[in-house]
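One-letter codes give the sequence; the fold follows as tokens. An example follows:
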Amino acid sequence: MKILGISAYYHDSAASLLDEGHIVAAAQEERFTRKKHDSRFPRNAIEYCLGEAGIGMESVDAVVFYDKPLTKFERLLETYLSYSPAGLSSFLMAMPVWLKEKLFLKSTLKKELKTFLKSKKSKMPRLLFAEHHQSHAASAFFPSPFERAAVLCLDGVGEWATTSVWLGNKNKLELKWEIEFPHSLGMLYSAFTYYTGFKVNSGEYKLMGLAPYGEPKYVDLIYQHLIDLKSDGTFRLNMDYFNFAVGLTMTGPKFHELFAGEPRRPESPVTQKEMDLARSIQVVTEEVVLRLARTLHSELQVEALCLAGGVALNCVANGRLLREGPFKKLWIQPAAGDAGGALGASLSAWYEFFENPREKVSSQDSMQGSYLGPKFEDSEIRQTLERLGAKYEVLSSEQLNSKLVELLEQENVIGWCQGRMEFGPRALGGRSIIGDPRSRKMQSIMNLKIKYRESFRPFAPAVLAEDVEEYFDLSEESPYMLIVAPVAAKHRTAMTEDQKRLFGIEKLNVPRSSLPAVTHVDYSARVQTVHKSTNPKFHELLKSFKEKTGCGVLVNTSFNVRGEPIVCNTEDAFRCFMRTEMDYLVVENFLLAKKDQVTIQQDLSWQKEFELD
């Protein structure tokens, strides 16, 4: 049985394909269209999934959408009525879209799916709808290495649920309880994302990265006025301060009065106030997550926890959960946001709707390292590079690794495009930009000359899985870069008294460890453990780097620039390479040096094609 999962029409559209319960392929639409967070019907992602399986739509048994639009529409109407007459402008803006497209989504989907059929006589696959948090829960539990586990889903909002608790057992998920809209931890965090001048649904990473530069001076205000947090982790928001339920903004006048000013204007300088706000909401978020986890552990009496939903991408909170939470084991869906809902919807159908048994669970999850996107053969790569007029050399794997280690030692920045593309928001050594973590200038070079983004944004270390405890206070695997852990004490650099007195962004240029490019100002790092079983090429490069330098760690950041999705194919990679100050590009065994390429005018007007976040 082949099941196609789809998420679309909100943000991060995606598609996934199962064959007899095995994950064949999964990808976000943005990677193909080059429009970040593309919400449109995932036509290209579906075409890729079908092509990866070598089938047409006629061979698909069922298509599953990741939420129930009629239930969501019911929530919108009830919310507008309960807040009436406030929110009229928002209502008038939302209704035409719903009445034209979303309310009749079943018909819209059938119409789109029919275009994949070879003839009008071809049989349409069965069309099913999962609930939003059911899709999240299924994406978290069914690929996990656990036969039985608690599942916690935290996001902005699905149909009604914003927080949901499930018990996963073999091939079943049982909903235990939930918190409903408008009381949402995801919306609370996004309100601060908006207020600090970043874009909602994409700027939350920035807010988390900014937090270590600030002080938690607003925590008491948040607890006193914005959120009523109970000892068991359940909560209610004071909606007098927010505008997201019925308005066109996240925060309202009372929120702005509480924090003494209007929201920061996007692209304006980040001040200490924004840093302190970021730190404060991060502290509150972590406390909510920890309290919820303790309650789940007590109620469900299990030792493993699975996480999904946008809040599950808060890797600082995840790190605290692992260190301080009551669960012995933690597994987080790498595509925890709405894109992962496509995969969860298909898994829910396979196990729960069609009642297929879950195969014996192994100690390794079934996500295949999240390398579920397209890869490209040498003939395709060569053809593309020739068409683009690129100058390249082709090396054996041994020659390539030796050359790359030499280049990395010389502080060169390298675009690394290998194997299948990652599914989810993190680059994991499939579509990455890599560098030497021992370099004191690498973070600044990558942020300002490669990524064209704020200087404070941290980079992640990719470390040989077998060496993780050598460098970090982390004894568990972290293959999906979703856990922040402290740098091991022996690698830290003590600060002078003068350095300790530095405040805010002044802390940035103080080296904190023997790995300054990946060590944040609080001596933490967002760790990715690299495994030979899932990414042998990246593992081998790290191994070669360690043999030459004694360091089994590399800087790993996503292969893209600000405002653009992670690159998908050779042409995307070459374009990004040529329009930044990247030094080298490697696509499989093809190596390109910037100095060898035909000089092109440094034209950054292409950035206008994308919505800068």
